[in-house]
């Protein structure tokens, strides 16, 4: 009976140890799963933060690029406007010069016309040149 009692105690002790071991194992597994879940959560959170940061940087770069492009475009348009303005000024100057030249030419032509009316006509048959041409004699 003592042996049976002792065997029962040993069985009970063995079962108690098994239960304790199983409980510890379950606790360990649960703890491990919780750690893995926390790790995944942190990793996902970190990835999201990195993704948001990259998107933000990308947006900032895009904004800077847009600003620089607008500045460049504004500068280019100002240069084009200045170039057109200079071309118009040159064209006006050329037009003014041409007009002045025409006016001067007309004035000179009128003066020549007036002077040519007052000049005497050359003699056509003078100095033994019949019809104003030489006859071959010196």
| Shape category | rod-shaped
Structural class: mainly alpha
Instruction: Tell me the series of helices and strands, N- to C-terminal.
Output: H
Strand content: under 5%
Alpha-carbon distance between the two ends:
182 Å
The largest sheet, given as strand count, sense and whether it forms a barrel, is:
none
* Residues in helix, %: over 70%
Mean pLDDT: 90
- The total strand number stands at 0
List segments where confidence is low: pLDDT < 50 over at least 5 consecutive residues: none
Give the count of helical stretches: 1
What's the alpha carbon Rg, rounded to whole Å? 57 Å
Protein name: CCD34 protein
Pfam family, one: CCDC34
Region (Disordered): 25-46, 78-138
Biased composition (Basic and acidic residues): 78-110
């Amino acid at each position: 009976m003592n042996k049976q009692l002792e065997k029962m105690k040993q069985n009970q002790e063995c079962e108690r140890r098994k239960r304790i071991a199983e409980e510890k194992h379950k606790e360990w597994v649960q703890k491990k799963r919780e750690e893995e879940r926390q790790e995944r959560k942190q990793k996902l959170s970190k990835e999201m933060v990195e993704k948001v940061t990259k998107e933000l940087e990308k947006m900032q770069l895009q904004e800077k690029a847009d600003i620089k492009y607008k500045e460049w475009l504004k500068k280019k348009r100002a240069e084009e406007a200045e170039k057109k303005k200079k071309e118009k000024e040159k064209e006006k100057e050329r037009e003014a010069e041409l007009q002045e030249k025409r006016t001067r030419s007309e004035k000179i032509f009128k003066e020549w016309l007036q002077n040519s009316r007052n000049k005497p006509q050359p003699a056509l048959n003078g100095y033994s040149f019949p019809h104003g041409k030489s006859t071959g004699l010196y």
